[in-house]
Amino acid sequence: LVSPYYGLFILLGMFRVVCLLAVFDAVCLLDTGMLFPRESSSREVKELNGLWDFRADQSPNRNQGFDRAWYKSRLAETGPVIDMPVPASYNDITQDPALRDFIGWVWYEREVVVPARWVADGGTRVVLRVGSAHYYSVVWVNGVKVTEHDGGHLPFEVEIGSLIRKDPTVPCRITIAVNNTLTLETLPPGTIQHMDDRTKYPEGFFVQNFNFDFFNYAGIHRPVLLYTTPKAYVDDITVVTDFLDNTGLVKYNVSVQGAANATLSVTLIDKDGRCVATSNGPAGVLKVVDVKLWWPYLMHENPGYLYSMEVRLTAADGKSTFEDVYSLPVGIRTVSVTSTQFLINNKPFYFHGVNKHEDSDIRGKGLDWPLIVKDFNLMKWLGANSFRTSHYPYAEEILQMCDRHGIVVIDECPGVGIKDIRSFGKASLTHHLVVMDELVRRDKNHPSVVMWSVANEPAAEMPPAEFYFKTLIQHTKALDPTRPVTYITASNYARDKGAPYVDVICVNSYFSWYHDPGHLEVIPIQLNTQFENWYGKYQKPIIQSEYGADAVPGLHSDPPVMFTEEYQKVVLQSYHNVFDQKRKQYVIGELIWNFADFMTVQGILRVVGNKKGVFTRQRQPKAAAFILRERYWRLANETGRLPPWTKYPCSL
Ligand code: BDP
């Protein structure tokens, strides 16, 4: 395997310092930006959320929709349709088990009234954007294919202005076909298995296999919208922040599309609306006197401080003048790693947080504001200062909440369940690199994101894992030299092939659960050995990135037995005792598995999903939540700088 990026890695490694000051997406192969769609004086947004027409293609090869060109006319004309909410997973919306477990193409369609001005004004770009659709999407507008996208969890978009202008009298019909099939080369990977033994299985029976522990929810999971920009527009912005004494530095780079010569002015505005720095041109450094740094929740009395960077573009093409305005929230902070510490703004940061899932009743993985806000309230109630986006990128709306509330994020790509040696091949790696490009492009400007995770529990002991992870990690560091990169391991410390390349060791372990089930007494010894082994070999800081136990709410037993609330409590407490010794040395964080119960495939190890949540799926606390809450607030009071009224238990 020879990576097309290999030469660039070496070069970029050598010039890492230079990169810090320059644009940091030099190796990204994507040629356009993916700024979050925001309204401004020059941009309008029209949400297409709500009810769409929907049909699953139940034909034996799932290809009838393409064979009969369902995109050419209204979906209701080619067969029966049902109402489908967007955003939402389609799986739990009906009573039909065939739709819950559906594998293959589903079709969404909706007609949109496009404002007349957007159609009339040829100087306006009209962009169709899908926040995420799982897994492979093809999009048509009025029967014309406009784009396709490989991968769930990340946005894609396409300009459709010229198409809707072709015939302004017809309504704009948007058709999106989405296929949730996972193959050896998708992320996450999977395989389709056909069962041909007619004495055992019905005609056409097949299953989707994969090696991850969450339900493979599918559909259009995040908002679909139309937004406008002028023809000449701000396509991308990259900021890298730093500070020196009390002067903040915002290095920025703006890329422009649609104009050979554009004038750019950049203004940084504080929370009170005061302009604190200005600059001109596509790249520069904004200097902020008496800077208010971005601090994590519970580390500072004023966490999540955001400035607003207003980028104003003016361009002319002989006939017309274009002005585009885009405002980007900017948090000024630094991140670095030593052999024993994780530093935010040069101060040691200890992750006391959670692992989450995008998962809830009925909605599946669909973005839902009440759920998002409830989860943030629960995280703050717990005293959690961080979470990992296990096991895929979460909605941008969630990261924006993290920026504002000071919740620190380990941002994970969908590289979960890479266990089959064939998923370490060239095609898989190439796709994985593109997914990292897309992820970094989307999330690079979030101050809350402090580390990239390129995978969860891959088969890191397999021989090809070394080249695979070396390439992937170096590529990610070249994309973004300002953040540490890791992957989450559950393999043997001595045989883990990627560990030499990560900046922080993240280890998952389930002592007294998957190993030595029922034997709580092994935890102190085995956890201590785990830490000593990893640190002894690599001398890198360690995060316990997962630990926990299932508890069925309401099940009790003393002495504790597995699956009771008491057992979950004692597992946590036994881990905590060891964390307390090791955090004085090189353990820099602990993330519980999991924040809340979540849905999985059916299997003999799962009773209606994974029950390792400290909250139920309906977000009610189990006994373990109170253990965690006491601990996290104690940790915060030891390590943070809190105003007295937020100190546990006074605020409660
Ligand atoms: C870990 C996986 C996570 C699972 C968890 C479990 O990373 O996705 O849900 O085990 O089994 O190994 O509960």
UniProtKB/TrEMBL annotation:
<protein>
    <recommendedName>
        <fullName>Beta-glucuronidase</fullName>
        <ecNumber>3.2.1.31</ecNumber>
    </recommendedName>
</protein>
<dbReference type="GO" id="GO:0005764">
    <property type="term" value="C:lysosome"/>
</dbReference>
<dbReference type="GO" id="GO:0004566">
    <property type="term" value="F:beta-glucuronidase activity"/>
</dbReference>
<feature type="domain" description="Glycoside hydrolase family 2 catalytic">
    <location>
        <begin position="335"/>
        <end position="636"/>
    </location>
</feature>
<keyword id="KW-0812">Transmembrane</keyword>
<feature type="domain" description="Glycoside hydrolase family 2 immunoglobulin-like beta-sandwich">
    <location>
        <begin position="232"/>
        <end position="333"/>
    </location>
</feature>
<dbReference type="InterPro" id="IPR036156">
    <property type="entry name" value="Beta-gal/glucu_dom_sf"/>
</dbReference>
<dbReference type="InterPro" id="IPR006102">
    <property type="entry name" value="Ig-like_GH2"/>
</dbReference>
<dbReference type="InterPro" id="IPR006103">
    <property type="entry name" value="Glyco_hydro_2_cat"/>
</dbReference>
<keyword id="KW-0732">Signal</keyword>
<dbReference type="GO" id="GO:0005975">
    <property type="term" value="P:carbohydrate metabolic process"/>
</dbReference>
<dbReference type="InterPro" id="IPR013783">
    <property type="entry name" value="Ig-like_fold"/>
</dbReference>
<dbReference type="InterPro" id="IPR006101">
    <property type="entry name" value="Glyco_hydro_2"/>
</dbReference>
<dbReference type="InterPro" id="IPR017853">
    <property type="entry name" value="GH"/>
</dbReference>
<dbReference type="InterPro" id="IPR008979">
    <property type="entry name" value="Galactose-bd-like_sf"/>
</dbReference>
<keyword id="KW-0458">Lysosome</keyword>
<feature type="domain" description="Glycosyl hydrolases family 2 sugar binding">
    <location>
        <begin position="46"/>
        <end position="230"/>
    </location>
</feature>
<comment type="function">
    <text>Plays an important role in the degradation of dermatan and keratan sulfates.</text>
</comment>
<keyword id="KW-0378">Hydrolase</keyword>
<comment type="subunit">
    <text>Homotetramer.</text>
</comment>
<dbReference type="InterPro" id="IPR006104">
    <property type="entry name" value="Glyco_hydro_2_N"/>
</dbReference>
<dbReference type="GO" id="GO:0005615">
    <property type="term" value="C:extracellular space"/>
</dbReference>
<dbReference type="Pfam" id="PF02836">
    <property type="entry name" value="Glyco_hydro_2_C"/>
</dbReference>
<keyword id="KW-0472">Membrane</keyword>
<keyword id="KW-0325">Glycoprotein</keyword>
<dbReference type="GO" id="GO:0030246">
    <property type="term" value="F:carbohydrate binding"/>
</dbReference>
<feature type="transmembrane region" description="Helical">
    <location>
        <begin position="6"/>
        <end position="30"/>
    </location>
</feature>
<keyword id="KW-0326">Glycosidase</keyword>
<keyword id="KW-1133">Transmembrane helix</keyword>
<dbReference type="Pfam" id="PF02837">
    <property type="entry name" value="Glyco_hydro_2_N"/>
</dbReference>
<dbReference type="InterPro" id="IPR023232">
    <property type="entry name" value="Glyco_hydro_2_AS"/>
</dbReference>
<dbReference type="InterPro" id="IPR023230">
    <property type="entry name" value="Glyco_hydro_2_CS"/>
</dbReference>
<dbReference type="Pfam" id="PF00703">
    <property type="entry name" value="Glyco_hydro_2"/>
</dbReference>
<dbReference type="GO" id="GO:0019391">
    <property type="term" value="P:glucuronoside catabolic process"/>
</dbReference>
<comment type="similarity">
    <text>Belongs to the glycosyl hydrolase 2 family.</text>
</comment>
